[in-house]
Specification:
The protein is mainly alpha-helical and 520 residues long. Helix content is 73%, strand content 0%.
Length: 520
């Protein structure tokens, strides 16, 4: 193995945990850096029409503001471990935050669409290491017995940011101008970068001189970028009825298949697939991925249903969605602090049961459900969010040694992010296709021979509707009911997935009282 130690001998020893105000300030700094990065995955979504109009492009082109960032980030995240071994975790995190901050400012100053897309690509590429490294650095900085608390505090930002992203994006776009969705990153990024640089000097991790796995890197870039583009663009291009989407799918499948074979035999792989030999990591990553897929699907479908079916504005839909973060914010650090006393499988299984219960609750909604009833299950869901993310992340990393923690965190975060993209693509496609199916079935009952149809038509006529307007109103009612039934179906399927995960989690074997990276 062509590797030699480049860091000073002092770096080889594990630094003592931080204490007091220094630890608190570092926690805030790292959390804000994580919040900023995760927020940017969703904050631009609601601003796409405004950005497209201001820069003179179609909405279909405007979606590249989202896609360019997600593609670049998806490529960079699994490279975290490899980059950290070459550069050092602290140095890599600080550099990523600073570059991300400058790229954010450049996005706001962009005078044309091409420049904006370029800097969004830069944003995505440099953002990759930020989330996994904030996790590993925070864990290393806390005493061993408090690492669960560190993970709970870190998880709050990852959980809350994508929920509040669209709400903040909509509010900023409505009240200011779209560049401010990027400018707000500047003070946050400067503070986070300063905290990392000033508080973590002398705590750099061991570095090694590794040759570049050019073949593995090329296959990763091609495979992941094609896969992410397929997920981002598939729905708008009618999936596999589009030759472009078919081409992306074939290239992604071939590249990823060859990458898996190559990396499994490579001595210095760019992605450490040997992590999957660890039972807890393999099962934990699988459960987090499917759990996040189902959860993120509901995060997407819920506001879509509120706005397209129930007639809510984007602001009110955001308020209806936000309560899921309230209990999660309160409970995540409490669960993290007491994880050493708990059976993590019991906590995670309880979370999936909460998710299943909420899904069934949502599946009972009708078109006349009041706002007060809409937000109640979202509030309860926050309990499940806190009990899911922190314990499952701890289980996943519980058997990983400190020197492999950055690689494991990067790979598990990559799978989580990719699962969110898959969940979005699958859920929205299923929702619309199922609504079309229900529309067709319901339309069979709408005829001149139906007493209910005639009664409703008479009511519309008495209200002033006539001729084609009556037919249009009937079709609108059938369409709304079709989407309502599709929403109910989606949540029933989600319930089944969560129940299966509640059972699967018992196949893991975390150490009692264990936490992430036990230093073995």
């Amino acid at each position: 193995m062509n590797a030699s130690t480049a860091a000073p001998d002092a770096a080889a020893a594990e630094p003592a945990p931080l204490q007091g105000g220094t630890l608190a300030l570092l926690t805030v700094g790292l959390a804000l850096g994580t919040f900023m990065e995760v927020l940017d995955t969703s904050i631009a979504n609601v601003a796409v029409p405004t950005i497209s109009g201001n820069l003179g492009v179609a909405n279909s082109e405007g979606t590249w503001v989202i896609s360019s960032y997600s593609v670049a980030s998806a490529i960079a995240v699994p490279l975290t471990g490899w980059l950290a071994r070459r550069v050092g975790e602290v140095r890599l995190f600080t550099l990523s935050v600073v570059l991300f901050t400058f790229a954010s400012a450049a996005c706001g100053f962009a005078s044309n669409f091409e420049t904006l897309i370029f800097f969004r690509l830069v944003q995505g590429l440099v953002s990759g290491p930020m989330v996994p490294l904030s996790q590993t650095i925070l864990i290393r900085s806390y005493p061993l017995e408090k690492r669960g608390l560190a993970l709970g505090l870190w998880a709050m930002t990852v959980i809350v940011a994508p929920i509040f992203g669209p709400v903040m994006g909509g509010w900023i776009t409505d009240n200011y101008t779209w560049p401010w969705i990027f400018y707000i990153n500047v003070p946050i990024g400067l503070f986070s970068g300063a905290c990392a640089y000033l508080l973590l000097r002398g705590r750099e991790t061991k570095t090694t001189r590794q040759r570049i796995d050019a073949v593995g890197l090329a296959l990763l870039v091609i495979g992941v970028s094609c896969l992410q583009m397929m997920l981002d663009l598939g729905k708008d291009r009618d999936w596999f009825n589009s030759k472009f989407i078919v081409t992306l799918a074939i290239v992604a499948a071939v590249s990823i298949a060859f990458m898996l074979v190559w990396e499994a035999t490579e001595k210095e792989p760019v992605v450490d697939l040997s992590l999957f030999r660890d039972r807890n990591f393999a099962l934990g990553a699988l459960i987090i991925s499917f759990g996040f897929m189902a959860f993120f699907g509901s995060v997407v479908i819920f506001p879509l249903w509120l706005q397209t079916v129930m007639g809510y504005t984007a602001g009110i839909a955001g308020l209806a969605t936000a309560p899921v973060g309230l209990l999660a914010l309160v409970l995540s650090p409490l669960i993290g602090r007491n994880m050493h006393k708990l059976d993590l499988r019991m906590v995670a299984s309880f979370a999936f049961l909460i998710f299943a219960f909420v899904s069934i609750w949502n599946s009972t909604f009708t078109l006349d459900v009041p706002f007060s009833h809409v937000i109640q299950p979202r509030l309860v869901q926050g309990i499940g969010v806190a009990c899911f993310f922190v314990p499952m992340t701890t289980i996943t990393l519980s058997s990983i040694s400190d020197e492999r923690l950055a690689s494991a965190s990067g790979l598990s975060n990559f799978l989580r992010t990719l699962s969110g993209a898959i969940g979005t693509a699958v859920s929205t496609t299923f929702w619309e296709d199922d609504a079309i199916y229900h529309h067709a079935v319901l339309s069979e009952s709408v005829s001149q021979y139906s007493q209910n149809t005639n009664s409703y038509s008479d009511t519309l006529t008495s209200l002033g509707f006539a001729g084609q307007s009556v037919t249009a109103q009937l079709n609108e009612i059938v369409t709304q009911q079709g989407y309502m039934l599709a929403t109910n179906d989606f949540f029933r399927i989600s319930c089944v997935m969560f129940l299966a995960l509640a059972v699967l989690v018992w196949m893991t074997k975390p150490k009692k009282g264990g936490g992430p990276s036990m230093g073995h």
